[in-house]
Amino acid sequence: MKLDDSVWEKLYLDIPDGDKILARCSFPLDSDKVFCAIDSEKRRHLLIHLPPSEKDYKDTHSRGLIATTRELIINNGEMIRYIDIECLDRFGYPILDIMAAEIAEGLINGSIQSATVVNNVLAKWRRFWGNIPNNMLSKEEQIGLFAELWFLLFWLFPHLGARAALTWRGPWGGNHDFEWQGSSVEVKGTCNSRGRIFEINSINQLENSINTPLNFFGVVLREEVQSDFSLPFLVCKLQQNFEDLPDSLDMLEKGLIKIGYSPVHNEGYEKLRLRVVEQILFDVNDKFPKITKISLADGFMGGIEKVKYDINLNTFNDLIISSSPNEFRLSKEKSI
């Protein structure tokens, strides 16, 4: 379900005056309980029908939004109570449209109270409100984030549960993408047709911390329209896993915001569908191909500040620790 932009365009043709609100049904073919509306200041509202059996609803904790209960007359009909969600920030309009669709979908079967549906949708979007990036992540950035979320969902979560989200350190400038006591993991994804060709972006990415083993997780991907897997799919699965775990959900969503991911661009992110061809965890030891500060100091001139290079792991099977999440084991000393 998607809100048609023409709904707002038609509303702006006739701006109301005073305290009046001009409204149109948002999804006339699917739901008659959600209306789009504008006021005399051209601010956008969502109006959600609130049955007499439900208590008044109010929410003032969402940045850029105010939700209150109002009695309104629409189309010269009878006085009816509505939850009025007022958008205070025009930069939040894209999220408001998505919220309208999600609220309408939640009310279709009538089994959930209006206030409950509204509250759930507001809670979902509260953290992302006010953090809407102007642009989508680049294709390379999407592939990199996909690889990290894949490792978090399918490799770490089955072993660590809620604590898995707390090991994701890449968004906060950690030495490696995932870190926990006694271990670190650097994660990379690639769509290179030649297989295990991964781009290393800095001299520190494959640098072992003192007395801490480093592993490299590489996932080889192929673009495939029929695949079930996309960034929004992985994000949704992780949110579902962490929905009853506030600290983990908080860490996940703050990390996504830090990276520049926002669900407001999900329609675009859904277009990049990926199939996992191979997923492998390597031991980054002395035989692993890498450039580090030590190797530069030993074999190159000083003064080098930035290094970016590709590694080819097609012939390094002897360094493979695991090629399946089912084979992956966290030893007791590596637990958090």
Give the structure's gist in a few sentences.
This protein is an alpha+beta fold and 336 residues long.
Characterise this structure.
This protein is an alpha+beta fold. It has 2 domains: 6-126, no CATH class; 139-334, no CATH class. Helices cover 28% and strands 24% of the residues. It has 8 helices and 12 strands. The protein has helices spanning 6-11, 93-107, 114-126, 139-160, 231-242, 246-259, 266-269, 293-299, and strands at residues 22-27, 31-38, 44-49, 65-73, 79-87, 178-180, 183-190, 197-200, 214-223, 274-283, 309-312, 320-322. The strands form 3 sheets. A 5-stranded antiparallel sheet has the order 1-2-3-5-4. Strands 6-7-9-10-12 form a 5-stranded mixed sheet. A hairpin with a 3-residue loop joins strand 1 (22-27) and strand 2. The mean pLDDT is 88.
Any chance you could write out the topology, listing elements then pairs?
Blueprint: H1 6-11, E1 22-27, E2 31-38, E3 44-49, E4 65-73, E5 79-87, H2 93-107, H3 114-126, H4 139-160, E6 178-180, E7 183-190, E8 197-200, E9 214-223, H5 231-242, H6 246-259, H7 266-269, E10 274-283, H8 293-299, E11 309-312, E12 320-322
Helix pairs in contact: 2-3, 4-5
Q: List the helices and strands in order.
A: HEEEEEHHHEEEEHHHEHEE
Gyration radius (Cα, Å) is 25 Å
Please list the strands of the largest sheet in the order they lie side by side.
1-2-3-5-4
The number of helical segments is: 8
Instruction: Please tell me the total number of domains.
Output: 2
Largest sheet: 5 strands, antiparallel
Shape: elongated
**Number of beta strands:** 12
Helix content: 25-40%
